[in-house]
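Reminder to self: tokens first, then the designed residues, so the page reads top to bottom the way the pipeline ran.
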């Protein structure tokens, strides 16, 4: 009887941990399915910019547009892996129907020369996006106008546009100093495999501790 409680406790604890690991495996399959759907949508054939796009229903919607690209750029400080600090370049685009939207044209290294340019008609393709980058720790824009997050309401107010952002994939007037940074599913967290491994590992440790406990009980018998 003295071994019954440790055995039951060990099996119960390991069972709970294994069940949590299996749940994370199921979540992994679900998340991979969602990511596959997102990737498929991102690369769908582009459509015209909707009159009133919805942040949820139209997230990542591929669009194409033609209009006049303005020169009133906004720079957003960002950081890219293996590159470091960069500026995202946000520009206004006046569509043929008179609407004004924003284009995330990509990134330029901080301190890189900015070539002179003029307003001109361009055709662009990209994806609608509503980035969630602003939180309580986000600094206010710098006096120079530099922003520290893609804050759609704030950027739209500065540029005089609608709160619509097209993240560029291609343009008929590419800027050689700017590298497009199209949206992709790569930035969406998917840590379920690591969580599953952690739970299964804890189950093994729990059983090991149970075995150690039983061994101690045997020695003191």
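Designed residues (221 positions):
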């Amino acid at each position: 009887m003295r071994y019954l409680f440790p055995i039951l406790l060990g099996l119960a604890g390991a069972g709970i941990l294994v069940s949590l690991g299996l749940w994370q495996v199921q979540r992994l399959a679900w998340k991979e399915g969602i990511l596959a759907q997102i990737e498929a949508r991102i690369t769908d054939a582009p459509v015209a910019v909707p009159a009133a796009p919805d942040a949820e229903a139209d997230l990542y919607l591929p669009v194409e547009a033609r209009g006049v690209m303005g020169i009133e750029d906004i720079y957003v400080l960002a950081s890219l892996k293996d590159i470091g600090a960069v500026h995202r370049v946000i520009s206004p685009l006046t569509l043929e129907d008179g609407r004004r939207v924003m284009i995330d044209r990509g990134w330029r290294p901080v301190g890189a020369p900015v070539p002179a340019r003029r307003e001109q008609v361009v055709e662009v393709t990209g994806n609608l996006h509503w980035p969630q980058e602003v939180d309580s720790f986000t600094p206010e824009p710098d006096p120079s106008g530099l922003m520290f997050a893609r804050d759609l309401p704030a950027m739209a107010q500065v540029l005089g546009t609608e709160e619509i952002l097209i993240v560029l994939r291609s343009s008929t007037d590419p800027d050689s100093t700017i590298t497009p940074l199209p949206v992709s599913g790569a930035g969406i967290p998917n840590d379920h495999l690591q969580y599953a491994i952690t739970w299964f590992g804890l189950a093994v440790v729990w059983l090991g501790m149970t075995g150690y406990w039983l061994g101690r009980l045997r020695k003191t018998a």
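The longest strand covers residues 84-95.
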